[in-house]
Amino acid sequence: MRKPATSASSAAAEPQRRDTSAARAAKFAAETRLGLVRRARRMNRTLAVAFPDAHCELDFTNPLELAVATILSAQCTDVRVNMTTPALFARYRDARAYAEADRTELEEYIRPTGFYRNKTSSLIGLGQALLERHDGVLPGNLDELVELPGIGRKTANVILGNAFDVPGITVDTHFGRLVRRWGWTTEEDPVKVEHIVGELIERKEWTMLSHRVIFHGRRVCHARKPACGACLLAKDCPSFGAGPTDPVAAAALVKGPEAEHLLELVGR
């Protein structure tokens, strides 16, 4: 059986793609510190255009509710947490309610979020610690927050940035994956990532940067198959090509309510 003929244009395209890939790699390999800062800030500005309404996707009305919702979000989707918290918040309205909660009852309220026994211990411990150390009021600074049960640095930054308007960088799975993919850092440790990115981006932008990167990670730059061919950050991304570069194939991978807006921005 004869093999199908290969067109001259297709044959020429392959070395051209290799040359483009090599040129891209060389460009980012030669990037200076100043060049990295400028690129990171440019990417943040592009993300602001892509996600003008980026925000914390957990529902809350006060700092304590945000703290509880963030604790529940561990190994659980924000959507599931938001389905669980209305009844929870109606039943447990303050730190004392959590401190004095019946464990079995509280477990049933939060069971849908998974790991409910550990999370119940964290919520009861949080309520007790707030009563003992802070008159039942959630503190608004990092040092005191991370001393509370169930609240690590990531959770503290979520609370600070969204409940107290104190700039903070939230290094969750999406954030860490994307900033490494973008060549902003090679570090795996979340605290190191937080500090490194904090030196690249203006402090006033930290909270919104976190939201934008997380939105982008959930909607476009997926872990297994990023939508490279439909990404506004393509020219500034050293990992372009990790996913489909064909615009049509990439467009099919874009998710979320912003999909139409995102595709319009890239001309699809």
From TrEMBL:
Biased segments, Low complexity type: 1-13
Catalyzed reactions per annotation: 2'-deoxyribonucleotide-(2'-deoxyribose 5'-phosphate)-2'-deoxyribonucleotide-DNA = a 3'-end 2'-deoxyribonucleotide-(2,3-dehydro-2,3-deoxyribose 5'-phosphate)-DNA + a 5'-end 5'-phospho-2'-deoxyribonucleoside-DNA + H(+)
Database matches in HAMAP family: Nth (MF_00942)
GO molecular function: 4 iron, 4 sulfur cluster binding; class I DNA-(apurinic or apyrimidinic site) endonuclease activity; DNA binding; DNA N-glycosylase activity; metal ion binding
Listed EC numbers: 4.2.99.18
Gene (name only): nth
Alphabetical list of CDD domains matching this protein: ENDO3c
Binding residues annotated for [4Fe-4S] cluster, in chain numbering: C221, C228, C231, C237
Full protein name: Endonuclease III
Known cofactor(s): [4Fe-4S] cluster
Gene3D superfamilies: Helix-hairpin-Helix base-excision DNA repair enzymes (C-terminal) (1.10.1670.10), Hypothetical protein, domain 2 (1.10.340.30)
Annotated SMART domains: ENDO3c, FES
Matches recorded under SUPFAM superfamilies: DNA-glycosylase (SSF48150)
Higher taxonomy: Bacteria, Bacillati, Actinomycetota, Actinomycetes, Mycobacteriales
Disordered: annotated segments: 1-21
